[in-house]
Design goal:
single chain
């Protein structure tokens, strides 16, 4: 099992479903996966990652934009 930290790369609303919402650089979520493959960009992980941002910050992310264009992924353990 791997533990990941997903961090917003830069401030803006490009990854948000609602353009009136805004992500700020440094916002992050943490998640665990059974594989050691980074979860960003994996279609099966996109929806759960977007849901974690919604739960933590109340910001609705477009699941298709849960990728390395907008986010960094760091393996924590």
């Amino acid at each position: 099992m791997a533990h990941w930290k997903i961090i917003v790369k830069s401030s803006g609303n490009a990854a948000c479903k609602d353009r009136s919402q805004r992500l700020e650089k440094g916002m992050f979520i943490e998640t665990s996966t059974v594989s050691t493959t980074p979860p960003l960009g994996l279609s099966r992980e996109q929806m759960p990652l977007a849901h974690l941002f919604m739960s933590k910050y109340g910001i609705e992310i477009d699941p298709r934009k849960m990728n390395r264009s907008y986010f960094d992924c760091i393996k924590m353990g």
